[in-house]
Every structure is written in C-alpha cells, then in structure tokens.
Amino acid sequence: MYVTFYGAVREVTGSMHLLCTEKDRILMDCGLFQGHRRSANEKNRVIPFDPRILTNMVLSHAHVDHSGRIPILVRDGFLGRVYCTRPTASACEYLLLDSAHIQENDAEYLNYKTARAALSRMRSNDTGKNGKRDMQEIKAILKKGKNGLNAETINHYIKQLRLESVEPLYTVADAERALPSIEGIPYRTPMTIGQDTTVTFYEAGHILGSAIVMIRCENNGNPKTVCFSGDIGRYDKPILRNPASQFKPEHHNVDLMILESTYGNRDHAPVVDMRPQLKQALVDNYNRGGSILIPSFAYGRTQELLYVLHELYDSNEVPRLPIYVDSPLATNITKVFGEHPEVYDQETHRKFLQQGKNPFSFRQVSFVESVEASMDLMRDERPHIVISASGMCEAGRILHHLRYKIHDPKSTILIVGYMAANTLGRRIMEKAAAYEAAGRTGEPPMVKILNKEYPLKARVIRLGGFSAHGDRHEMLRFLQSSGLSIKQIALVHGEEDQSLAFADFLKNAGFAAKVPQLGETWTV
Fold first, then answer.
1. What is the C-alpha to C-alpha distance for residues 276 and 364, in angstroms, rounded to an integer?
2. Which of 107, 281, 322, 396 has its CB 3.0 to 4.6 Å from that of 166, i.e. a possible disulfide?
3. Residue 216: beta bridge partners?
C-alpha cells in the first residue's frame, strides 16, 4: 500500500492525498489551492494524475480547500463515488455550486476590467484625453443595468482587441454534473470503497459533518489502516461534539496517520475567552460609532458567530446592532445546520432546541439575498454588523464591503479564522498589526482590493478563540486520548514552519512524525 501527498503539503490549502493498494486507488480530498491568484489558478488547473484511474474518493469535510476541485475531477473523467458524512454531502450541494458561481463571476469581472482599460486607452489615444464622461460611456457599453455586466459585449471586445481573457476554473454546469457522485453515510458506519477496503467516519469537531477518516484494507489477510484526520477541531466549542476519542477495535492499530498541522506551533486563546473577546470588540466599536465587518467562512464559522451573538443579545451584554449575513451560501448552509441537529452537542440542545429557539436566527438577524440589497448595505453608513464570505477575503461580497469600510477609522474588521499566506485576509492582518505596533502614526498602509488601493484605517482585531482548528496541545490531546496505536505520522495541511515545528513537538511526546514533500510517496 502506498500514499502519495499531492496537496496541502508544507502549505495549508489544496488538500489531496492518493492511497494505492494492489487493486484500488482511493483519493482522500480534492481541494482548491488558495492564495495568490495567479499561482493558485495555475495549481488548481492541474490534476497530477488521470482521474480515470481512481476507484473512489473519500471527503473529510466540505470546505473548498478540501472539496473544491471535485467538479474538475468529474469533468476530466472520474467515474467513482465520493463518500463523506451526510451533513457534508448536504453542504456540498451548495458549496460547490457557489464556488463555481464565484469563479464565473470573478472571471467575468476581471474580463470587464481588462476590456474597460483597453477601451479607455484607445479613447485616450484618439482624443488625447480621457475624462469622467468618457469612462461613464465605456462603462455603459460594458454593463447591463446598474450592477450587471454585459458578458456578450465584454467577450466581443476581448476577442476583437486580442486581449488576454480569464476563464473560470470550472462552471456551474461542471459543479452540477459532479453532485450526483457525492454520497453521504452516517458516522461510524463502515462503507466498502474498494476490493477488501472500507471507510469509516468519526467526528472531527471542525465543522458540521467534518470527519476523521479511517480506511482499512485487508491486503490478503494482512490488514492495514490509514487514518486521515481531515481538520481536527477544538474542544468544548459551541454546537459540535468534541473530536472522537472512542474508535472501533479494528481501527486501534494505525499504520499511517495523515494529520493536519495548521497550528502546529501555536497555542490558541482558551475557548472560554471567545465570548468575552467578541463582547469587548462589539462594545469598543459601538463606542466609536462604526460598523463591524467579519470575513467569515459561510460554512461553520458564520453559524458559530450567530450562536455566540445570539447568546450575547439574549443576555443584554452588548448593544443590539442589526446583523446582516451577506452571503446566499451562508443562508443555505444555515438551513443545512437546521437539518442535522443529530450532530449537535448536548449544550446546544439544552440552551436552544429544548427552549424552542433556533440557535442561528433571532430578531436582529437579516439574511441578505440579492446583489442590489448587498450594494445598498455596503453604502449604509449607520452602524451595523456584516458577516460575509469569503473567510480569507479572496472572493465574494466581503471584498465590496471592505472597499467601502476599510478606510473608515471608526469601523472594525474582525478576523475570526485562519488567513493563509498570500491571501488578502493575511495581508490586511499583517499590515494592520504593523500599523498598530507603530502607534497608528504616519500614513496608513495601503491594501489592494480588486486592483484598487485603499488606506487601511479601520481597526483590525483578531479573535483567536474562534479558530476551527485545534492548536498543538489540542492535537496532542486528540492523539493521546484516542487510544490509537500509531506507527507513523505524516504532517500535512500546515505552512512549512508550522508542520516542521509540530513534528519536533510530537517527537518529544513519543510519536514518529515527519513532514512529507509535495509529490512524495510513502510505503505503508
């Protein structure tokens, strides 16, 4: 048996690992790379093997850095099944279509800007000047209505002027074709995924439906077990149960564990600090009279924020500003949460469900659907709270909210999750930290959003307690409490410094841990 590491190796995104037996090839995750647009686009367009060789695939959870390339896999010839938990299958119906929709829209918008710039240059060359009226006329040609783009006209000028166009990674039609391949199965229920090979999912505590994946292959009477952690969550967080600590006897001996290391060299603030930290940020911002922008993953983080805000509002601990969830995807995912209360922890049942309350919906919350309503909200100068995707500020409606609020010193940007290297979210976080360290004196740092630079005057606050990934001690807690006998550990899903530091940390705790190279193959 062999495992080859094709993604999320010495970096966080693009999770993909291939397990090969004598008879089968099982893919673990098929995620999108995220980060610098050009680099990520180049990596995402290449599947490093022919998808037709795969028997089946297992998916640890629905976040797009684990699931986002499934439409490419199916489009390029994959004929197997994608096995995951039932909540993950439900979420993928929305997440993959949303991912495709964003990519189509982003490509269309970038092509619009390319055509607009070319027409502007042509008009300037013809007249020797380029005024505001000229630009308005160009926009009128390329746009449809107030906010829409005229794709047919844009593509006409792209071809006529021989401009470089941007093609979406995959389309909504590609995503729709992939969805029938995805099959949800209950936790702790073995499913045959190859000849003499089964998969069993255990609770990972990361997001709704996230799973620790146990793959067992009989291998001619010599059973081998590979455990893929997916993303391991934190302990004692709201809504979800803790990471599994009880495993079936046949899974106790693990020949290879593929373990995430996102926070392999870091310690989070205690989970109990999450609520007071959010409370303080809300009160401070209210006193300044600004709005709060929260870049948030639509799946998991948004619902967790709504849960805690619901608690704070019910107990009258914070001013009750209107809350807008500006993400159609988050609206749909919140419905998925409502469909799977069987995976909630006991505390959520006690505080909300047994009281007849929906944890994620209350009077001050509005779900924004249309583009027009979103645009109106962006221009609204009254104090409010916006929760919007994407979580790393790489795409989606949050970019437009940032354009309108990032230069407002009264407003706050709350960072409530991990920001991968080379993402806009990471740049905002790092530049804000440097500006704060300098006493917020001098010119504020500039941040480029959709190819235009804005001064970063808004306060940027990072709330570490909201992380959905366990830190190094929580990961060690999982290993030690699981009762698993683990022969070797491959550390993935972490930036290189985090993975290498975590390897040393685990070695000191008695585990045989190493960090593979991208494309490296290990023998099990």
1. 20
2. 107
3. 198, 225
Q: How far is CA 411 from the centre of its chain?
A: 24
pLDDT per residue as tens digits for the range 412-462? 999 998 888 889 999 999 999 999 999 999 999 999 998 899 999 999 999
What φ, ψ does residue 195 adopt, rounded to 5°? -70, 115
Which residue is it, tokens 């929305």? 94
Angle CA(50)–CA(86)–CA(183) in degrees, nearest 5? 35
pTM for this predicted structure: 0.84
DSSP string, 92-135: HHHHHHHHHHHHHHHHHHHHHHHHHHHHHHHHHHHHS---HHHH
Q: How many CB atoms lie within 10 A of CB 375?
A: 16
Separation of alpha carbons 518 and 243, rounded Å: 28
Buried b (16+ CB within 10 A) or exposed e, 150-167: beeebeebbeeeeeeebe
263-304 per-position pLDDT tens digit: 999 998 888 778 899 999 999 999 999 999 999 988 889 999
Burial code (b: 16+ CB inside 10 Å, e: under 16) for 287-321 equals eeebbbbbbbbbbbbbbbbbbbbbbbbeeeebeeb
For residues 250 and 198, the answer to whether their CB atoms sit within 8 Å is no
